[in-house]
Design brief:
heterodimer; A: 373 residues; four-stranded mixed sheet; 66% helix; 10% strand; B: 372 residues; alpha/beta; elongated
Chain lengths: 373, 372
């Protein structure tokens, strides 16, 4: 069967008109991604700053106050409550009013002066394990530096020893937003591609308009083109809008070539809408298509490395991620934005993702042809 | 409101549900599948950080430092670059997360009692892992440094911190993730179950039949909610049991409290679904709105992964509109902290308000549409 450019053009016109007719859908297509990026761009923040802290200072000396000040001055901790009984720490942690409690026992300053070990008790709420791990590290470092400063004030030798100087590449401030916002772009593009295609074919079937198309001279390949091209255009426009928001609003650096980003997004969107069309052709009702899409999307997100690094997953799941198109795009979009990588650095990703996209679109049109017969 | 009519609607909805085998199976199996899948797959525990060591000194002391990193369990030494180029390549190709650079003259200076700088180059693109790696490395180096200086034994630090972790002593991320998952899974399932129920009746034309009977709008909304409430409650039970049996998540608090609070939560979350369903006229729109309004917000804005206290004030305000937000606090509080009503009442009140407002709005919009 040959593809006629005229018939494809007419089909694209029809699909475009259908997409843009419903004002609610128009809002979902263009306003929702911007609002979502603005909301989620702020939400995806794992930086540990201003950890809510309760202080129980039983020593009440200049030294104990200095330790408190050192903690708050670091910017990592914010004292929300102060008290005199350790019970208060317990109550605040139970109710979730604070994440960390610091107890400075009586005799802290005396011990410091006598050159004995003076110990501050630190209690951390471990329910949020990530925050707890990071807060523990910061608190330990601050108290260690505090000890060194006190020692050097009293003329003790602190010069010798090993000094670790850490330097973070690509993201010197270690801001998690810089890492996560490009990931959110990937999620929004995928969601859009799926939302616009998962019901595309099954709706025509439920409404009975598929039969009208069947009696026309349009062949399945042309129909597939007609369904994909408009969605591809909408998604690329979305990409442009949200990339601008990411650059100008969130100040995410784009270090790699724009061409690489465009090309990566193009292939990724193609894979997404191919998957959506495939779901649409294998489902009998709209509800079924909805549930099927639902079944695939969350594992897809979880196994993409968006929230959880792939290399901390059990090995079986690490292998599973190799089948996940989202995973490839996450690595590409982060590489392009943060590391300044280009097409040459990511050619394996491009190759695999292109293969997946073509397979999905081909599979959808095969299924579709079969279901027509 | 007539209880008899309400129950009749509930029975009708239950019969319809029973006929729709596929949806029913999904309603029961999906939550279990999700908790097993995610419980196994995801972990935020930072262990075995891949490290390169560029040892420019090649002395015994420098090898010892590298060994200490390896022995800590937090780092695995994968490669030993011999030049800046090689170190850089390892980082940019993401073969390693960090490179430890030990300068020439390390051993000599250390023995001479001078301060020796050691550099740690980190791949900062994943800020979270990089921060944790940096903290671990700092602690390891400080400890090793004092041991070297004093020839074994810890330096009697003048001040120290004795840290204890509560509720989740080993800081296992699974203990944080599984209770949160209960809340997220349930709010997604709840919206998914109910978001199509009213839109479907409109599309099929059966809503007019219902409207011509003496049944009132409140009775339809509550009657449609009831079967899903039972399914949802059963799902909470299954997911929590799976978390305890399969993932060894502790259950410190009272099961009764969790039960009561989950019913309150389900009223709110199912109410949101019904609200969406009565606003949308077609199943397509209901699906699009449900996905956009509940799916990602439940994951990203509930405090399940990203701490709410770290968000800007405006966004913190918006999170109060996400029912999962309250339930995440409840599941973590009851399962991990073992706290009682005393600490949980703000959440309980919030969920009651949420359910009341959600159901009232749904009923009101629904009433308007029947009249129109």
């Amino acid at each position: 069967m040959k593809i006629s450019p005229l018939r494809v053009r007419v089909l694209i016109q029809k699909e475009m008109r259908q997409l843009f007719r419903d004002p609610k859908t128009k809002r979902v297509m263009f306003a929702a991604p911007i609002i979502q990026l603005l909301l989620f761009g702020y939400a995806v923040n794992t930086d540990v700053r201003n950890v809510t802290t309760v202080v129980v200072d039983q020593d009440r000396t200049a030294e104990s106050r200095l330790l408190q000040e050192t903690l708050t001055a670091s910017g990592y901790f914010r004292i929300v409550e102060a008290g005199d009984s350790p019970r208060q720490i317990e109550a605040a942690l139970d109710a979730g009013r604070a994440v960390m409690g610091v107890q400075i026992p009586p005799g802290f300053a005396l011990a410091l002066k006598a050159g004995e070990a003076a110990t501050a008790q630190i209690l951390i709420d471990g329910t949020s394990s990530n925050t707890a791990t990071v807060a523990q590290g910061y608190a330990g470092r601050i108290v260690r530096d505090f000890a060194l400063d006190r020692a050097s004030e009293r003329g003790l030798p602190t010069e010798a020893g090993i000094d670790l100087r850490a330097r973070a590449w690509y993201n010197p401030d270690l801001s998690s937003q810089v890492y996560n916002v490009p990931g959110v772009i990937g999620l929004l593009l995928l969601l859009m591609a799926l939302l616009l295609t998962a019901l595309a074919v099954v709706r025509e079937r439920e409404l009975g308009t598929l039969e009208q198309l069947m009696v026309s001279p349009i062949n399945p390949k042309e129909l597939m083109l007609g369904k994909t091209v408009p969605v591809l255009i909408v998604c690329l426009v979305d990409l442009a809008i949200i990339t601008v928001v990411a650059l100008l609003w969130f100040h995410i650096p784009l270090r790699g070539p724009i061409v690489a980003l465009l090309l990566a997004a193009f292939v990724y969107i193609l894979a997404g809408l191919g998957a959506g069309l495939l779901i649409s052709t294998i489902s009998k009702t709209q509800q079924e298509a909805f549930l099927t899409m639902f079944l695939f999307i969350l594992p897809g997100i979880i196994l993409s490395g968006f929230m959880y690094p792939v290399d901390t997953m059990p090995e079986v799941f690490q292998h599973l991620t190799l089948l996940n198109p989202i995973r490839y795009f996450m690595e590409m979009v982060r590489g392009i934005f943060l590391k300044g990588q280009g097409i040459m650095d990511l050619w394996i990703h491009f190759l695999v993702l292109t293969g997946m996209a073509l397979t999905a679109v081909w599979g959808a049109s095969q299924r579709f042809k079969k279901s027509l017969e | 409101m007539d209880l008899h009519r309400l129950l009749a609607i509930a029975r009708k909805e239950a019969i319809q549900l029973r006929r729709d085998q596929r949806s029913l199976i999904l309603a029961f199996a999906l939550p279990l599948f999700m908790v097993l899948f995610f419980g196994y797959a995801i972990s935020w525990d930072v262990k075995d950080i891949r490290l390169g060591v560029w040892d420019q000194d090649g002395s015994r002391a420098s090898r010892e430092l590298a060994e200490v990193f390896e022995a800590s369990g937090y780092f695995t030494i994968l490669e030993r670059p011999a030049s800046y180029r090689e170190a850089e390549e390892g980082l940019s190709k993401a073969r390693v997360r960090g490179v430890l650079v030990i300068p020439p003259g390390f051993a000599r200076d250390l023995l001479a009692g001078r301060r020796v700088p050691v550099q740690l180059l980190l791949d900062g693109s994943d800020a979270n892992t990089a921060t944790i790696a940096q903290n671990y490395a700092g602690a390891i180096v400080a400890r090793h440094s004092s041991q070297v200086l004093l020839g074994g034994g810890d330096m009697p630090l003048l001040a120290g911190a004795e840290t204890r972790i509560w509720y989740n002593e080993t800081l296992e991320s699974r203990n944080m993730i599984v209770p949160g998952l209960v809340a997220v899974i349930m709010s997604i399932i709840a919206a998914m179950l109910t978001s199509l129920t009213i839109a479907r009746e409109w599309e099929r034309g059966t809503m007019e039949q219902l409207a011509s009977t003496p049944v009132k709008a409140v009775e339809i909304v509550l009657g449609k909610l009831l079967p899903y409430l039972i399914i949802g409650f059963f799902d909470v039970f299954v997911v929590v049991t799976a978390g305890i049996l399969v993932f060894d998540v502790p259950f410190q608090g009272s099961p009764l409290l969790l039960g009561v609070l989950s019913i309150l939560f389900l009223f709110g979350a199912l109410g949101v679904g019904i609200f969406i369903s009565s606003v949308a006229e077609s199943q397509v729109v209901a699906m699009q709105v449900a996905m956009v309004a509940t799916y990602l917000p439940a994951i990203l804005l509930s405090g399940f992964l990203f701490d709410i206290s770290g968000m800007p004030t405006l966004l913190q305000g918006i999170t109060y509109l996400i029912p999962a937000r309250y339930f995440v606090v409840v599941t973590r509080g009851v399962l991990l902290k073992g706290v009682g009503v005393g600490a949980m009442w703000p959440q309980a009140v919030a969920m009651i308000v949420f359910a009341a407002v959600g159901l009232t709005l749904a009923t009101r919009i629904f009433k308007k549409e029947i009249k129109a």
